[in-house]
Amino acid sequence: MSEAPKKLEAADIQAMFDRSPFIGFLGLKVLGLDHAASTFSARMPLRPELERRAGTKQFHGGPVASFIDTVGDFAIGMLVGGGVPTINLRIDYLRPSVGDYIDATAVVRRAGKSTAVVDIDVFGPDGKLVAVGRGTYSPQTA
Amino acid sequence: MSEAPKKLEAADIQAMFDRSPFIGFLGLKVLGLDHAASTFSARMPLRPELERRAGTKQFHGGPVASFIDTVGDFAIGMLVGGGVPTINLRIDYLRPSVGDYIDATAVVRRAGKSTAVVDIDVFGPDGKLVAVGRGTYSPQTA
Amino acid sequence: MSEAPKKLEAADIQAMFDRSPFIGFLGLKVLGLDHAASTFSARMPLRPELERRAGTKQFHGGPVASFIDTVGDFAIGMLVGGGVPTINLRIDYLRPSVGDYIDATAVVRRAGKSTAVVDIDVFGPDGKLVAVGRGTYSPQTA
Amino acid sequence: MSEAPKKLEAADIQAMFDRSPFIGFLGLKVLGLDHAASTFSARMPLRPELERRAGTKQFHGGPVASFIDTVGDFAIGMLVGGGVPTINLRIDYLRPSVGDYIDATAVVRRAGKSTAVVDIDVFGPDGKLVAVGRGTYSPQTA
Lengths: 142, 142, 142, 142
Known about the structure:
The structure is a homotetramer of 142-residue chains.
Chain A: H1 10-19, H2 21-26, E1 29-34, E2 39-45, H3 61-80, E3 86-93, E4 101-111, E5 116-123, E6 129-137
Antiparallel strand pairs in A: 1-2, 2-4, 3-6, 4-5, 5-6
């Protein structure tokens, strides 16, 4: 008999973020989640190593993609008890990501048995949309 | 009258990599390039901050995506004199990326006036394909 | 001196649909549009040639992709006076598309000078989301 | 005890193509396949309903996407005995597809237990690359 997976709360995910070497390095902070609406949001503060060019406060696209992947992942992961494998990920860069932080919100569009599709929007400190992501994840219990 | 852009050699790109805060952090090393064939390759060594879980030698998907984006970018960038904006990017994760380094090779599939499409393959130390990327870039002179 | 492009109304687009051999074959019907909100929606009725297997009322994925592309295209096209080139297109199939018709709604996420990004959601007759698309278009005046 | 799926030969796939209402309408012709190399190729002849504008001999992007999806699908399908569900698909349009036919070749990049990734290249009658596709399929026995 299989047990229902433990749903994760914000503090659980923050602890997982802090424990992961790469996510910890990015310094992601959980902003909120809603299990019923299948939404999850987090913030990525700027640190000098994340800049595209030194002193510009513009995030390199790599950390933006990493942020999108992780926020999308935990929109599913919070339902199944941990991070899940990413099958594939699409990123569209809409504007330069400039500022002291960027925020992302993920919403699950479809959670199937073997695959799940998640949309992720990323906003700058001025509230403007800077990038969008769409990921397919493998929602097996972590 | 517009001047032809300066084509970049391996040492030029390595200097640009080292100067970029994020690419420098990733520690990317240029492996080779071929202007005529429009191919470019590089290596990303493992460092502890890039791991998915501490001590596993498995790269987190974020650095893999960042690596793919950067190698694809410079397959165009080497022709136009510097890094170019990424319009969008698709990453497919095929196997866990485990080892002391991963290598990527990019090939330009089509270089149009306003957009260029590049394929990027990523291999583990054992030569197995671990991820593939396809990116659309804006190939204006940097 | 360049002239502002003529914005298209529903009847203009319907006439363009009917004139295009392939879109006319698909039989697309304009449902509505909102220039200010940058949204456009249309319906694709089932016809026997569009089925995956005869008699199942399930649309083949090809017409679904074609429908997504066209509806996304005219969410930009209605602002610039005609159909625009698709740079690339991503389709996620979430559920079988079964029924006498499917509906799609497109929303422009970002309209830049040289590229525009559009999201397209497709719904079955029961209102369930059956597929999602995201396209990058070249929004030059048609 | 589960049985190994029946591998499909060219004639088997052609019969399946002809039986499918939509693929039959497109008129796809199998060109060749290689089970060991995991490659599959086919041709799509022009017919008036597939044109973007009447009389131009330019294929609409929708049939090109449909062709890519189908050829990618059977690169996996030939190994497992029939068409398989498409999870998602990316299409990049590189040049207008003009002529009496277009050809596509698919190669499996990775066939996992629950997902497979396939690359599809499309060529015009002059041998120029006109579009590329990358799809993720669900390779369960059909």
